[in-house]
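Reminder: ligand-aware prediction takes two inputs, not one.
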Amino acid sequence: MTSDALLLEKIHSDADDALNRSGLDVNRIDGALEGQALIDAANGCRVLGVRSKSAVTAEALNALTSLEAVGCFCIGTNQVALDAAAAAGVVVFNSPFSNTRSVAEMTIAEIIALQRKLFDRSMGLHAGTWQKSATGSHEVRGRTLGIIGYGHIGSQVSVLAESLGMRVIYHDIVPRMPLGNAIACESLNELLKASDTVTLHVPASPATKDLIGEKELRSMQPGASLINNARGSVVDLAALSKAIGDGHIGGAAIDVFPQEPGSNEESFKCPLAGSPNVILTPHVGGSTEEAQAQIGRDVALKIERFLTTGTTTTAVNVPEVDLPSHHPDQMRILHFHRNVPGVLSALHSILADAQANIHAEYLQSLGDLSYVILDVDPIDREQVGKSISALPETIRLRILG
Ligand code: NAD
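Here is what comes back for the chain with nicotinamide-adenine-dinucleotide:
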């Protein structure tokens, strides 16, 4: 089977439009591939699409000499040897924010579910116990939501929570423009003290490890709820279990854990299991069909822009350059090369010898790799291509137009 683009692991069909627009034939294999099987299947492809289970190793990248771009149709990029890809001039894209809305919606559902103790009521009925009572159940309208981390997800939660009539406060280490009527808190402590529900939307980092521990939980209002749909390292679960056990914290929803099973076949243990008014979910905050479709469109669109204009914005392993389309009467030279002195002057001298007028020039470097783009009047493509390819610093050359 030969194709211009090979998509593995049931990547959403919404990816196809942008890839077809780039002039690529798309083939699919449902499972993950690695090793020689991946090399054989992707041989001759310009684009390879993977999710989290395939392994795109340095060996595979060196063997797949036609490959120009790898699309990780997921959040992470650990499955690709990123340095080897950069060294081969293969651009890697992913989609870190396509599931933002899915996480925000689940968070909103949990804010309400915790205030109404819905899971405990439901579990009661499953076990044959009828517990009709209003005590301890609250509307969320008029109550205060504290958002820690006001980035893509935190700011969407802010908008949705306000539409429910909640008062929204937030804390971020970077100054962020408040949306709607949300109010920024100077300190984490200020937010913890004022919130009925606290929801976390920060990245995993040394600074956010155990951001919510014993001290922070005790700063929260008695009966307040905590939601962590961010990363497992951010909350000290033993301290949370204790604070729920003694009734200080009224409920929690946890989607992410310090240790998560590697597959659906592995079992799961957590200190919160069996605690009252605690919702535990298996890292599904971003897992919706809509998010998968959005990821398909997002990554394919990035690949389309790279193939048709050379744009590498949001690529994870090469210098980022945002390019307009080139003029239809001009040619565009796209050149990845080793970041050493003298390459630009060698390129200019090749173009001067070809009597090519340069209309635009863009350059960006990242570590050992540089990316230069030149828009020029039409030239002898074969001759100039041969001369540029012969430069010892050349990693990869494409000429558009
Ligand atoms: P983002 O980068 O857009 O926003 C993160 C925000 O947190 C930024 O504004 C940043 O300045 C802020 N921040 C960083 N350190 C902070 C600190 N110590 N205190 C306060 N604010 C701090 O990220 P995002 O897309 O909104 O994602 C947020 C989290 O959600 C990430 O950890 C991500 O991995 C996680 N996530 C989880 C799921 C899931 O399935 N549960 C899905 C997608 C994302």
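DSSP finds 13 helices and 16 strands in the chain. The mean pLDDT is 96. We will return to this case in the review session.
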